[in-house]
TrEMBL record:
Start and end residues of each N-acetyltransferase domain: 126-267
Enzymatic class: transferase
Keyword line: Acyltransferase, Transferase
Organism the protein comes from: Kitasatospora cathayae
Gene3D superfamilies reported in the protein's UniProt record: 3.40.630.30
Gene Ontology MF: a single term: acyltransferase activity
Protein name: GNAT family N-acetyltransferase
EC number: 2.3.1.-
Superkingdom of this protein's organism: Bacteria
Amino acid sequence: MNSSHHVPNERDTTHRALTLTRVSDTEWHAVQADQVVGRGDASRRPDGRLFVSIDAWHDTVFDRIAHAMLADLPAPLHTLVDESDHATASAWQRAGFTTARRDQGYLVPTDPQVTGLLPARPPAGVTIVPAAQAEQGPLRALERVIHDEVEACAGWQSIPAQVLPRPAGTLVVDPAQYAVARQHDRYVGLIRVSPPRRPRIGLIAVRAELHRHGIARALLAHALEALHRDGTTAAWAEVAESNTAATALLEGIGARHADSTLELVRR
């Protein structure tokens, strides 16, 4: 794949001609005076949504890359923008994108004296299996059940875009990131905590028939207590603005709203 969009009448602030080239199926370059002055990228998520991003020096370059990508790619297209980045949001709006959803970012304290989650007591008949101790087979089976339940109800579009769903049957990437809730001989809930510099709570999920039994709260208590023991003072989590239950859970343990991410779409 190597197609060009020549733009003889469009010039940036230095008044030099700009050439747009699709250098691969998923990447576009804006070239001026033999220098790359902007890039566009596209990636398809496991749930089928096609996300685009643009890194450009000037508004004119951004607009030309957006024009080329919109001409080459099928709708709908999605992108993510920090809500406080008004310039980038405006650039995407010029290209015809509108807000589809808003995800709230939270700093979640780990100290049980702050969260009030000590001691972490799951419901009767439920035990918490710590990270790295879950069995691969039952964990994969639980992921498939949760994947199907999400698809049957709100769909993965209800999950923050930063939380990448995986197709049913896909191997768990790293079981060390998962703690699970076990009821008798089956796994019924999970929490995933990614371990970068600031740990991120990627997903908390419980089988549908066991919602509102306190299992999610027990999983969160367990994960935060483990982080606290390791010296981590706060974790990061994203919640869809429409997910009032998750928002109430986080705010109820002292989580602080830190920023918001917009998912924009062009249909």
